[in-house]
Write a structure and sequence with these properties.
The complex is a heterodimer of chains A (about 220) and B (about 800). By secondary structure, chain A is α/β, with parallel strands linked by helices. Chain A has a single domain, classed as Purple Acid Phosphatase, chain A, domain 2. In chain A, about 15% of the residues lie in helices and about 35% in strands. In chain A, strands 1, 9, 10, 11, 12, 13, 14, 15, 16 and 17 form a 10-stranded mixed sheet that branches. The radius of gyration of chain A is 17 Å and the shape is globular. Chain B has about 800 residues and is an alpha/beta fold. Chain B contains 32 helices and 26 strands. Chain B has a 7-stranded parallel sheet, sandwiched between helices. Chain B has a 6-stranded parallel sheet with strand order 8-13-12-9-11-10, sandwiched between helices. In chain B, strands 25-21-22-24-23-26 form a 6-stranded mixed sheet, with helices on both faces. In chain B, strand 19 and strand 20 form a beta hairpin. Classes of the chains: A alpha/beta (about 220), B alpha/beta (about 800). At the A-B interface, helix 1, strand 12 and strand 17 of A face helix 19, helix 28, strand 26 and helix 32 of B.
Chain lengths: ~220, ~800
């Protein structure tokens, strides 16, 4: 079935998977995104590879758009906000520090492997974030009990869909039921992805407005 | 005075020949004389006629004081690493006669860093290298010194390099050497090709004196023996492996004779190896496998095994096409169409590697229509015509790579370098505006990045005595390292190394194949059944397995279309087939095809030379159109897409498309009236708006994206994974398709994108050939037959359809179908 969002229920918490590559928690009004990799183009440029840097503009615009639509109380970034500490120049730093003001919401960053060494004001930085039944992290973590769900980024999950003679790939949400882990799709435009295990349950983002549930 | 000296040298050379019991051929003497007169040029003679001796004697005789050289005297460029060793041996043998002190060394990917360093400190008289290693040398600051006294360059098997971008790479390196060294003499050796003037021009540059072309009328006799189907059949069997008729082949082959069995793809060679070992268990240790993806050591062992006589049969691919002077092999087998004459002749040449020897090749068809090809080849050989091999033109990726190389080494002055590059044959049409774009791309990263201060690949450095002049350099050490690592990626796709868990290396597999494996899967590689254990840091770990599996890796580049010349002859051959009854002396191939051809004639027609055959076949739920364009697989495929689009414009439907070297088929699930093709023939054969129509006809962006991957790699946008340090470079990983999207979206007129479009049009769709083909078809009489049963000509297309089809459906529609399939 094709929809503009899919709702998933963990214990008593509602999770809404959006085709805009974000997860929304309506009860606490928290919006989650991950793996934006800001400054990726610049990092390539510094290393002598001429990648044009227009994608960050688009990333910021898309963040603005979903925040406007869902008016969350908190925007949580599940790691890899930046691509590398070496590619953060003053303009980019300023832009990120202005985000809470611009979006009129709190912004929190769960530190990812690419964010190591970044120093940013106005944004609360945590290693890991826990609520009574959900653990938010960048890389998947081992859970203490089976009542907790781990929501994380890092993997950039993708799915390949095949039909007679051709194959296309889409970003997706992926759920590892054995480990109670939900992987979010990478938010950044300039990010690739990796196919994930067959056993995972998947929801593929087929356009900016549509998401489909993959029957396994 | 000069002539006396020449005569002395020439008689000295003759002495060497007679000491070995040989008589110099007239063309060899001619080459020596031209060389001693200071000329450059090309030597065009069949394989195994002593080209190497012809080219080398002259330059060798000029090394007067080999011990006190300050630089390399003779540079020898060869397309294959495997050739270097044999070349070295034969040169050393020859050098002994002139001067025992002449030193010969090899520099290629297999040379150790220690040896490389030694070569720079004390250059050998003769250096044997590959185009990639030469390019790498130019990125070294020592290159000026290493070549300052270079007097001549010899290029081996130039026709082999010419067909690909490696030819461009070689041309560019030559342009730099010609520019820096005065009075350089350059000679190339080539097999017989149709456009030899162009080949010679590419060596010396367009502004040089007319290069000498030395050819002989040595006609190498070739005997072709076809393995014919045992029973007479009216049913054309089809396929591309040919394994089912192995027994007919085994009947003719002698187990005790040294034999090369050539296949067209690595996949096919693995299968045949497996098959032969199975049916001839007693030959187990005497059969070996040889292809380009196997480990270097294994290949070497096979090469030596053949020389020592321990290995009798080798199943191989084009990896053994060239050189490797295995003492002449006794038997040569070609499995499946060789697709072009040059390759067939070259392979046959391996059986008698000596001037005047007669070469013999056993041809094993994989489908019956290939017999027509062989029959056509016989006729071409008889007529003495040869094929043309074209250099790719204006490859910006190779140009960018070359400029970075120079900037890594001694730097380049754009004004000087531009002239040198425009002097290269394949860059003669380089526009100033495009040249400036290339410089901009390297200095600023393209138009969009001009304002970005951190980007730097090449930087200007003013010359000390004149600040008007400046040179470009690469300053950053890590950029230099990365660039050097990337040279040599011109042909290769991304590969993973295959290793046993204990560490022994088996060879390379394409990443694409590797990524589809799951732990526990078994597959057949390097002649062994292997089980996939895990993949880490671009190494695929395996262990031996006893499980059976039919999974065999496929490598890109397996597909080839038959050459232009062969297409033309094939059409003539089919014309001849019309008159079969009237011919008394048929060749064995046509004779065995007689029943098939008769059936074709009864059911439909055999097109005469002024006719063009189309067949329509309807069964209960499908409408099929078969069109016999006889123009090679890729052109046929292009016309198929074009017609699918043009048909769909008249009446909307989706076609599945299949093509082979003979023609193509369009199939649709509807009851479709294909007879409009005859009524609207002008519309279908129209050449106007061909490019636009083609771009719309196929999923053009998908094809260009695929091309762009290779371009991005050569021009240094994406880095070949460095096997020793994958971890640290992970922050620089990005796929070429992301690059493609970003460039298309944000930078109009990006030359590398433009190049990928051009390459698709020229090499994949072969625009020009399509247009020529349509032009030709216009003048033919169209025969449109409705057939009740598939004809022998249509049958292979019908079979092919089940394995391999393309579609003219737009991408949006496919996404929609996918979504429907997966979400309902």
């Amino acid at each position: 079935m094709k929809k503009s969002s899919f709702t998933f229920c963990w214990e008593d918490t509602l999770l809404e998977m959006l085709p805009s590559r974000a997860l929304f928690l309506p009860e606490t009004k928290e919006l989650l995104i991950c793996d934006i990799h800001l400054g990726k183009a610049e990092y390539f440029q510094q290393n002598g590879i001429p990648l044009t840097n227009n994608s960050d503009k688009n990333n910021f615009a898309r963040i603005k758009k979903i925040v406007k639509k869902y008016t969350p109380e908190k925007l949580i970034i599940l790691g890899d906000l930046f691509h590398s500490k070496y590619s953060i120049d003053k303009t980019l730093q300023q832009k990120v520090e202005d985000l809470p003001e611009l979006l009129k919401t709190n912004v929190e960053l769960v530190l990812g492997n690419h964010d190591v060494g970044c120093d940013i004001k106005n944004i609360k930085i945590v290693d890991i974030r826990k609520t009574k039944n959900i653990t938010f992290s960048h890389e998947p973590v081992n859970l203490e009990n089976n009542k907790t769900l781990n929501i994380c980024g890092h993997y950039h999950p993708k799915i390949y869909l095949k039909n007679k003679g051709y194959k296309l790939s889409f970003r997706c949400f992926a759920m590892d039921k054995n480990k109670n882990t939900l992987f979010l799709p990478a938010f950044g435009d300039l990010t690739g992805g990796y196919p994930c295990k067959k056993s995972f349950k998947k929801w593929a983002i087929v356009s900016e407005e549509e998401i489909i549930e993959i029957k396994s | 005075m000069k002539n006396i000296k020449h005569n002395n040298l020439i008689s000295k050379i003759k002495q060497f020949f007679s000491a070995n019991g040989w008589e110099p051929l007239p063309y060899q003497i001619e080459t020596w004389e031209e060389f001693l007169n200071g000329e450059s040029g090309i030597i065009q003679v069949p394989t195994g006629c002593g080209k190497t001796y012809a080219a080398l004697r002259g330059p060798l005789s000029q090394i007067e004081d080999p011990k006190n050289n300050k630089s390399v005297n003779i540079l020898l460029i060869t397309p294959l690493k495997a050739l270097s060793r044999d070349l070295k041996n034969s040169i050393q043998l020859a050098a002994l006669h002139f001067n025992k002190e002449i030193t010969v060394e090899i520099r290629n990917g297999d040379t150790t860093p220690y040896e490389k360093k030694k070569q720079l400190a004390k250059p050998p008289n003769i250096l044997i290298t590959t185009p990639e290693s030469l390019s790498l040398l130019l990125s070294n600051k020592e290159s000026n010194n290493l070549f300052k006294e270079l007097s001549s360059i010899i290029i081996d098997e130039w026709h082999e390099l010419m067909g690909s971008k490696r030819g461009n790479q070689c041309e560019l390196s030559l342009s730099w050497l010609r520019g820096n060294i005065k009075n350089l003499q350059i000679w190339a050796m080539s097999a017989t090709i149709g456009n030899i003037e162009e080949a010679a021009r590419a060596i010396v540059g367009i502004s040089a004196m007319k290069p000498k072309i030395i050819s002989t009328n040595i006609q190498k006799e070739i005997e072709i023996i076809s393995v014919l189907p045992e029973e007479e059949t009216t049913f054309p069997w089809s396929g591309h492996l040919g394994i089912r008729s192995y027994s007919s082949l085994l009947k003719i082959l002698d187990k005790n004779k040294s034999t090369l069995i050539f296949t067209n793809t690595r996949n096919q060679s693995e299968r045949w190896y497996q098959c032969l070992k199975f049916f001839l268990p007693e030959m187990e240790d005497k059969i070996a496998l040889h292809h380009g993806s196997l480990d270097k050591e294994d290949r070497k062992r096979v090469e030596e095994g053949v020389k020592d006589g321990l290995i009798k049969w080798v199943v191989c691919t084009s990896s053994l096409d060239l050189g490797v002077d295995f003492q002449p092999v006794d038997q040569i087998v070609q499995i499946g169409s060789a697709k072009n004459l040059a390759r067939l002749i070259q392979r046959a040449g391996r059986s008698a590697h000596r001037p005047g020897g007669k070469s013999k090749i056993i041809f094993m068809p994989t489908n019956s229509l290939e017999l027509l090809e062989i029959s056509a080849m016989r006729r071409i050989i008889k007529s003495g015509i040869s094929e043309e091999i074209r250099l790719p033109e204006l490859s910006y990726d190779v140009l960018l790579q070359h400029l970075i190389s120079l900037a890594c080494g001694n730097g380049f002055d754009p004004k000087i370098e531009k002239e040198r590059i425009k002097n290269c044959w394949s860059y003669r049409n380089l526009k100033d505006q495009d040249w400036n774009w290339c410089l901009d791309f390297l200095e600023y990263g393209g138009k969009c990045l001009k304002a970005y201060p951190k980007y730097k690949k090449i930087v200007k450095e003013e010359s000390q005595n004149n600040n008007e002049n400046f040179k470009y350099f690469v300053k950053d050490k890590s950029l230099i390292r990365m660039h050097k690592f990337n040279i040599g990626t011109i042909t290769s796709d991304k590969f993973v190394n295959v290793k046993y868990m204990k560490g022994k290396s088996l060879g390379n597999l394409e990443e694409n194949f590797a990524s589809k494996l799951n732990p526990g899967d078994t597959f057949y590689f390097a002649g062994k059944m292997l089980q996939f254990v895990r993949i880490r840091d671009m190494i695929l770990y395996v262990k031996k397995s006893t499980k059976k599996s039919s999974l065999i890796p496929a490598w890109v580049g397996g597909q080839m279309a038959i050459s232009d010349l062969l297409c033309e002859s094939l059409r003539k051959e089919i014309d001849i087939c019309n008159e079969l009854e009237n011919y008394d002396c048929l060749n064995p191939e046509l004779n065995s095809l007689r029943p098939i051809l008769k059936k074709q004639k009864v059911l439909s027609n055999i097109p005469k030379k002024d006719e063009f055959l189309i067949e329509i076949y309807k069964n209960k739920d499908l409408s099929n159109l078969f069109v016999f364009t006889l123009d090679g697989k890729f052109v046929n495929e292009g016309i198929a897409f074009l017609w699918a689009l043009r048909l769909a414009k008249l009446k909307q439907t989706t076609f599945s498309i299949t093509a082979n070297d003979f023609g193509f088929s369009l199939t649709t699930a509807e009851d479709y009236d294909f007879s409009i093709i005859k009524k609207e023939a002008d519309y279908f054969l129209n050449n106007k708006k061909l490019e636009d129509d083609l771009e719309n006809a196929i999923n053009f962006s998908e094809l260009t994206k695929r091309r762009f991957k290779n371009i991005a790699q050569i021009s240094g946008l994406i880095n070949q994974n460095n096997p020793t340090k994958t971890k640290t470079s992970s922050q620089l990983q990005i796929s070429s398709s992301l690059f493609y999207d970003v460039f298309t979206k944000y930078e109009e007129g990006h030359l590398l994108i433009k190049q990928s479009h051009q390459e698709v049009k020229e090499y994949q769709l072969e625009n020009k050939r399509i247009s020529r083909s349509l032009e030709r078809l216009k003048n033919l009489k169209m025969l449109l037959n409705e057939i009740k049963t598939p004809t022998p000509f249509a049958f292979p297309l019908l079979v092919e359809r089940l394995k391999n089809t393309l579609s003219n459906e737009p991408i949006e529609k496919r996404v929609e179908k996918l979504i429907k399939k997966y979400s309902d």
